[in-house]
Design brief:
57% of the residues lie in helices and 0% in strands. It is mainly α.
């Protein structure tokens, strides 16, 4: 296949809501709000969310979480692991705080 043939290949179409996508007529992707996002786009969004979650945790806010994680994807599995790590850290901090409070009041 020569360079010209490669350049003329059309990317896969994105179908939206059962309608015929504009890409059939124009050769361009349908990027409307109704377009079904591809896996890379979803992974990118989850990656950005994980940056937000871990940045908040680094600032001391360990109550924030990544929601709607798909365990069948690598980014979703990573998000679930980060959420679990934050859950365990939060539980440890609560238990340690309660233990210190009871020890300071001689309730052990």
């Amino acid at each position: 296949m020569n360079k010209r043939a490669v350049a003329e290949e059309k990317p896969p179409e994105i179908h939206s809501g059962g309608k015929t996508p504009d890409s059939v007529a124009t050769g361009r992707h349908d990027v409307s709000q109704n377009a079904v996002p591809n896996g890379a786009e979803l992974d990118g969004k989850m990656f950005e969310r994980l940056i937000e979650v871990t940045s908040e945790a680094a600032k001391g806010n360990i109550e924030t979480r990544a929601l709607h994680c798909d365990p069948s994807t690598r980014m979703g599995a990573l998000a679930i692991s980060v959420n679990h790590l934050l859950d365990m850290t939060d539980a440890f901090m609560r238990e340690a705080g309660a233990s210190m409070e009871h020890a300071s009041e001689d309730k052990f």
